Amino acid sequence: MPGTFIAFEGGEGAGKSSRCRALARRLRATGHEVILTHEPGDTAVGRRIRAMLLDAGAAEPSARGEALLYAADRAEHVAAVVRPALDRGAVVVTDRYVDSSIAYQGVGRGLGAEAVAELSRFATGGLLPDLTVVLDVPPGVGRGRLTGPADRLEAEPAEFHARVRQAFLDQAARAPDRYVVVDATLPIEHVDAAIIDAVKELGLS
Questions:
Q1: Buried b vs exposed e over 8-39: b needs ≥16 C-beta within 10 Å?
Q2: Which of 26, 48, 108, 179 could form a disulfide with 172 if both were Cys (CB 3.0 to 4.6 A apart)?
C-alpha cells in the first residue's frame, strides 16, 4: 500500500495515547497526512462493541467472546478507517492493534497466542503494521499512572498484567525488523527520540 502503518502497543499506563498524539503532531508538521486512530471503538460499530468490552458494570463476555468482539471491532476498524487511509497514501497511527489481542486474550486469558493471531489475520485480511512501537513499563508502574475508575482489563490482577507485558516483549523479539521496544519509564524526551529514530527508518521525517 502507498501509505505507512504504525501501531503503538503496551500495557496499561504505558503512555500509548500521548505518544501517538505526539508522533501525529510531528508528522503533520512535516507535511504528512496522518490518521490518528485507536482500538477498540473508532468506528460506529466499534463504539458499541467497546461498551460491551470495557464497561465494568456491563455483563461480562466469556474469554472467547471477548476475543471475538475485539476481532469484530478490528475488522470494522481496518475496513472503515485503516485501509482507506493507507490506500490514499496517508500515515496511519493506531493506539493498539493485533498485538494487544494476542497479549491480552491469547496470553493473558490463556486462549493461545496463535489461535488469537489467526483470528486477527482473518479480521484484518492479514494487514500488519510497517512498524510496531512497544512502550514497555512494569505493570506496577504503569497501573500507578492511571487515574479514574478502572475498566475491566485494567482491573485484572498483577499476574495477568505481567503475562501481558511478557507477551508484548516476546512478539517483538520474534520480529525485530518490524518492532521497536522503548523503555517507557524514561523521560518523555528520550521516549520520543527513540520513536522518531524508528520512524525515520521507514523514510518518514
A1: bbbbbbbbbeebbebbbebbeeeebebbbbbb
A2: 179
pTM of the model: 0.93
Name all domains of the chain by residue range, CATH numbers in brackets. 4-200 (3.40.50.300)
3-state secondary structure of 97: coil
Which phi and psi (to 5°) does residue 3 adopt? -85, -175
**In a structure prediction context, what are the per-residue pLDDT tens digits for the chain, which is 205 residues long?**
799 999 999 999 899 999 999 999 999 999 999 999 999 999 999 999 988 887 756 578 899 999 999 999 999 999 999 999 999 999 999 999 999 999 999 999 999 999 999 999 999 999 999 999 999 999 988 887 877 776 777 888 899 999 999 999 999 999 999 999 999 999 999 999 999 999 999 999 7
